[in-house]
Design goal:
This protein is α/β, with parallel strands linked by helices and about 270 residues long. The chain has 2 domains: about 1-105, 60s Ribosomal Protein L30, Chain: A (2-Layer Sandwich); about 110-265, 3-Layer(aba) Sandwich (Alpha/beta knot). The protein has helices at about 10-20, 25-30, 35-45, 60-70, 85-90, 130-140, 160-165, 180-190, 225-230, 250-265; strands at about 1-5, 30-35, 50-55, 75-80, 100-105, 120-125, 145-150, 175, 190-195, 200-205, 215, 235. Helix 1 crosses helix 2, helix 3 packs parallel to helix 4 and helix 6 (about 130-140) packs parallel to helix 10. The longest helix is centred in the C-terminal third of the chain and has 15 residues, at about 250-265. It starts with a strand and ends in a 5-residue tail after the last helix.
């Protein structure tokens, strides 16, 4: 049965707005917000449980809604809202027409199944949800085995991270851990660690990135921590020919990740 909501004072709508604004509320209620049909569908295909689906029938095709219901393995509480309310609760107004509340999934190292020649992206202290989203899009494009986020400074399920990833946070395993935990796991699985650093003496394209490998990216503000600089099997850098020796972290990650793929003939 579909619940019709015509007021911003409805408890579900008020709670949705609260979840959008307060990371603490998302954590305490164990809920995340997913906006957009594509993103919701990817979450369902990844096994996420959708608890509530709020939609505006003027903005979303009926067959798209039916498609979500066919993918979901658990019942969803459906709520229909008019355009004026949807536009008050949605980031992308007059667009998509669907917002979901879902339970997050916390993937652990033991859940990963590295293949013969796995390739990982490790991010240290990522701060900006937009950067995280862009990095996850790169990870999806490269079909990486996983993204490991060490000591994150932002909620990986921040609505802005989900939105900027265009749902790629649901297509690639994402593990959060401390730096020591990540180093220990990579070492125990015989995965070579390539840290990116301006102090490196070897360029990334001069380095053999084939075989089990993890590409380590530091924060834009301070780069890699001493722990990674000390523990990395090799430090590499990207040639900088301009006046500024800094690129956006998502751009830098894409450059190195796709060089690793090129060396593997774009096969994994």
């Amino acid at each position: 049965m579909v619940k019709l909501i015509a007021s911003l004072q409805n408890p579900l709508i008020k709670n949705l707005l609260l979840l959008q604004e307060k990371p603490r509320e998302r954590k305490e209620q164990n809920l995340i917000i997913i906006e957009g049909i594509r993103e919701i569908r990817l979450a369902l295909m990844a096994g996420f449980t959708i608890t509530n689906l709020i939609y505006c029938k003027e903005l979303v095709p009926e067959d798209a809604l039916n498609g979500l219901s066919s993918v979901s393995i658990t019942p969803m509480d459906l709520a229909e809202v008019p355009v004026e309310i949807y536009n008050r609760i949605a980031y992308r107004k007059d667009h998509e027409g669907a917002i979901a509340l879902a339970n997050p999934k916390r993937i652990q190292f033991q859940d990963l199944k590295p293949g013969i020649s796995p390739l990982f992206l490790v991010l240290e202290s990522v701060e900006k949800p937009g950067n995280l989203g862009a990095l996850l899009r790169t990870a999806d494009a490269a079909n990486l085995d996983a993204v490991i986020i060490c000591d994150p400074q932002t909620d990986i399920y921040n609505p802005n991270a989900i939105r900027s990833s265009i749902g790629c946070i649901f297509t690639i395993p994402v593990v959060t851990s401390t730096t020591p935990e990540a180093i220990s796991w990579l070492r125990s699985n015989h995965i070579r660690m390539f840290g990116t650093a301006l102090t490196a003496t070897r360029f990334y394209h001069e380095t053999d990135l084939r075989g089990p490998a993890a590409i380590i990216m530091g924060s834009e503000a301070s780069g890699l921590s001493k722990s990674w600089l000390d523990e990395a099997d090799e430090l590499i850098k990207i040639p900088m020919n301009g006046k500024i020796d800094s690129m956006n972290v998502s751009t830098s990650a894409a450059v190195v990740v796709f060089e690793a793929l090129r060396q593997r003939n774009f096969k994994k």
